[in-house]
Structure formats: structure tokens, C-alpha cells
Design goal:
Elements: E1 12-14, E2 20-22, E3 31-35, H1 42-60, E4 64-69, H2 73-83, E5 89-91, H3 96-101, E6 113-117, E7 123-128, H4 133-146
Parallel strand pairs: 3-4, 4-5
Antiparallel strand pairs: 1-2, 3-6, 6-7
Helix pairs in contact: 1-4
């Protein structure tokens, strides 16, 4: 699995407005990239809905959010609509993106791993675990830490 300090591999992203971009094209803003095992399962639905509920706050803090699973793009699009997601949901049926990030599990689905990719495309933090709660809490923490009101450590 990729770790903190490593460059985030590039991949193509289809946005809800129908446009397609790459992760590299998002440089200049931090990205919360969350991998999850399977669309339409209880934990993945809870996690995606959680990110959907927090999306406006995260976006206002300067972040883009991207969800990835090994489901087909068609399945991801339907899942995104069901969860009220306004951020991109990447279908990775070839499993190339999951492999590039080192999150492909033994059962052929992505492990639940969330990466914070900084403005320069470097992984700055990550969370791994089965339960969605810590992933959502980390995203909130990252947004809070990036806020202009956050303490600067001085």
C-alpha cells in the first residue's frame, strides 16, 4: 500500500457534470480519495452518504472528494445518485487504480482506505480500517486543520 510522502498515481476521473479529468489536473487543491469495497453494501453506503453530507463543508475548505471502488462506472453512477453524492465516484472494474494504490484486497475488492493527497499530488495522510466512521472523522479533521481559523502551531 502506498504511504505518506509518496506521490499519488494519476488516473482518469468522470465528474457528475459529464466531464472527464485526471487526478493530476486537480493539482493546486487537496483531494480526499476514499477507496471502498463495494457499492450498495451497508458500510459503503454509510461512508458514501457521510461524505455526501460533508461534501459542501469539505469543498468550502478547498478539498475535492473522490470515491473509488472496483464496481463498473454504471454501478458507481447509480450508487452516487442513490447516496446523494455530488462528487466523482470512479468505477475501477479493471482494478488498475486499486492496484496502483496498493489497496486491492484478497477477495478482489478494494480495502477501505482513505488518502489525503496534498496540492502537489503527494500523499500526506491516510486512514485504513473496516469501519467508515474513522475515515469520515479524518476528513473532518483534515478540513479543520486546513481552515484559516485553525491554530498555526505558533
Amino acid at each position: 500500500m502506498l504511504g505518506v510522502g509518496e506521490p499519488a498515481p494519476d488516473f482518469s476521473i468522470s465528474f457528475p457534470d459529464g466531464s472527464t479529468r485526471t487526478l493530476v489536473s486537480l493539482r493546486g487543491r487537496p483531494v480526499i480519495l476514499f477507496f471502498f469495497p463495494k457499492a450498495n453494501t451497508s458500510g459503503c453506503t454509510r461512508e458514501t452518504r457521510g461524505f455526501a453530507e460533508r461534501y459542501e463543508h469539505l469543498r468550502n475548505a478547498g478539498f475535492e472528494v473522490i470515491g473509488v471502488s472496483v464496481d463498473t462506472p454504471k454501478t458507481q453512477a447509480a450508487f452516487a445518485e442513490r447516496c446523494g453524492s455530488r462528487f466523482p465516484m470512479v468505477g475501477d472494474p479493471s482494478k488498475a487504480v486499486a492496484r496502483a494504490y496498493g489497496v486491492l484486497g484478497m477477495l478482489g475488492v478494494a480495502k477501505r482506505v482513505t488518502f489525503l493527497v496534498d496540492r502537489n499530488g503527494t500523499i500526506r495522510d491516510m486512514v485504513e480500517g473496516l469501519m467508515p466512521g474513522p475515515h469520515l472523522a479524518a476528513a473532518e479533521r483534515w478540513a479543520e486543520e486546513s481552515s484559516p481559523k485553525a491554530p498555526t502551531g505558533t
